[in-house]
């Protein structure tokens, strides 16, 4: 996450009474990476003296709890409930370790952004690599958000089975309940206004609401699962993966990109810290956010997989389109889908915030004006990115496919490979032997697991396309 640091000089005109002045007066205004997107205002009712701890927890938690939660029950289908929950906890622990590395090396190098930290360790190339990965990852994540919104509101088709969306279920199939039109209305009516906000702390209220909506989804899903368990209509879930051959072993690694993507919040850690009233609180904020999100992830995975078992889809919301054999089934289905659709809309601007800034840093680093001060550039970058996301959501077949691509490439670099590389590079000589051993293990594990995941997905896709059609 980077904010282009620029220094501007504003030259004052000579006053007629100062004819003997030999030098022109100059005022230097520094816009650095620690500045919030909108400077703190003094006086009036709009004074901003720093974000609160609660607001920061909500913003960081909302960054973490995005679309990844919808695919986690499907990873339980791959890994089994016991192994799946263990891996969720492991990824959370590794995420905390990598964020601590970023914060510790930021303090040592005096940097106030992830991009600045990569630049400190690896020069301009490292900074550009980070910005490129954030752009790729966040575009992929936001495309996933849009795909899920399309699935929920307009419907989807999978393996020849059509899953009607909310509008089709309520009003029937019409042109205005179709996917393209629905996504266009959502983009123009909801996402554009939310994406136009320029300061992260402005989103703390919507972030809190987004977390609350995720909890609503969890409560309803858990309630349905508990009701059916008590009625004895659900089988016991698998605790371990179903291994039937070497291909099923390779298939286990396809869950890795989803789990990696679920915890990617590194690009927003520095902006959250920079807007804090007390920046030293960032580490407990990270810990609280990770504990909260891990709890929600485990509960969602547990109850989602118990409820649907091996029928769990890559986007579990698509399972909530039929009779669940519980009282008020269709009403509960609608509550689940509406609550999570609203959640994704409210999470969208936080991820888009980082995407826009890193896109600007990647392509317009030579600009003299900061992004928030240049309205034309701000609008152009925002409209361009929203257009790419809209098109991607209409042409990429499923959220699971997008998860596999972003999680196995850009996300693993942002979350694990880059932080571990910073510790191994250790330009300030502060890394311990344990830091370097852990970092080397993380890089090796990340590269191996994601290489196998890419191979397994490519093999499955090739096999699917080459198989004779009935």
TrEMBL record:
One MF term in the entry's GO annotations: L-amino acid transmembrane transporter activity
Membrane topology: Multi-pass membrane protein
Location in the cell: Membrane
InterPro entries in the cross-refs: AA_transpt_TM
Key words of the record: Amino-acid transport, Membrane, Transmembrane, Transmembrane helix, Transport
Ranges of compositional bias, category Basic residues: 10-22
Region entry Disordered, spans: 1-45
Transmembrane segments: 50-72, 78-99, 134-154, 174-197, 209-230, 250-269, 281-308, 338-357, 378-396, 402-425, 437-462
Main location as per UniProt: membrane
Residue ranges constituting the Amino acid transporter transmembrane domain according to the UniProt record: 51-430
Pfam families: Aa_trans
Highest taxon, organism lineage: Eukaryota
One cellular component term from this protein's GO annotations in UniProt: organelle membrane
Protein name (database record): Amino acid transporter transmembrane domain-containing protein
Protein's organism: Mikania micrantha (bitter vine)
């Amino acid at each position: 996450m980077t904010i282009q640091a620029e220094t501007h000089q504003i030259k004052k005109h000579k006053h007629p009474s100062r004819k003997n002045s030999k030098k022109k007066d100059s005022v230097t205004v520094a816009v650095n990476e620690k500045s919030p997107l909108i400077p703190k205002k003094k006086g009036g009712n709009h004074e901003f003296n720093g974000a609160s701890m609660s607001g920061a927890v909500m913003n960081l938690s909302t960054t973490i709890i995005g679309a990844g939660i919808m695919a986690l029950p499907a990873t339980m289908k791959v890994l089994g409930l016991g192994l799946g929950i263990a891996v969720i906890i492991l990824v959370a622990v590794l995420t905390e370790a990598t964020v601590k590395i970023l914060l510790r090396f930021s303090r040592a190098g005096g940097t106030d952004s992830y991009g600045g930290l990569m630049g400190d360790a690896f020069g301009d190339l490292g900074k550009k690599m980070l910005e490129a990965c954030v752009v790729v990852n966040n575009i992929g994540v936001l495309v996933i958000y849009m795909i899920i919104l399309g699935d929920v509101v307009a419907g989807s088709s999978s393996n020849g089975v059509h899953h009607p969306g909310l509008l089709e279920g309520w009003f029937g199939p019409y042109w205005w309940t179709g996917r393209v039109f629905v996504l266009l209305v959502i983009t123009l009516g909801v996402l554009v206004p939310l994406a136009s906000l320029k300061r992260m702390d402005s989103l703390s209220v919507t972030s809190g609401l987004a977390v609350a909506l995720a909890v609503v989804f969890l409560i309803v899903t858990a309630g349905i699962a508990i009701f059916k368990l008590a009625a004895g209509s659900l089988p016991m879930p698998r605790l371990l993966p179903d291994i039937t051959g070497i291909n099923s072993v390779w298939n286990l690694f396809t869950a890795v990109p989803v789990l990696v993507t679920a915890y990617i919040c590194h690009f927003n850690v520095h902006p959250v810290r920079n807007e804090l009233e007390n920046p030293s609180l960032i580490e407990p904020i990270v810990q609280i956010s990770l504990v909260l999100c891990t709890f929600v992830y485990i509960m969602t995975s547990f109850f989602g997989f118990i409820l649907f078992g091996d029928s769990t889809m890559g986007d579990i919301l698509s399972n909530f389109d039929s009779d669940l054999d519980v009282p008020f089934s269709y009403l509960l289905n609608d509550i689940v889908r509406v609550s999570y659709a609203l959640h994704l809309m409210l999470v969208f601007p936080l991820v888009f915030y980082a995407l826009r800034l890193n896109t600007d840093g990647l392509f317009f680093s030579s600009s003299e004006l900061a992004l928030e001060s240049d309205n034309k550039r701000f609008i152009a970058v925002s409209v361009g990115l929203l257009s790419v996301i809209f098109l991607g959501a209409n042409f990429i077949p499923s959220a699971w496919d997008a998860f596999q691509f972003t999680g196995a490439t850009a996300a693993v670099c942002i979350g694990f490979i880059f932080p571990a590389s910073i510790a191994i590079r250790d330009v300030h000589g502060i890394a311990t032997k344990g830091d370097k051993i852990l970092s080397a293990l993380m890089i090796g594990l990340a590269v191996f697991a994601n290489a196998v995941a890419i191979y397994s997905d490519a093999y499955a896709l090739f096999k699917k396309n080459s198989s004779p059609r009935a």
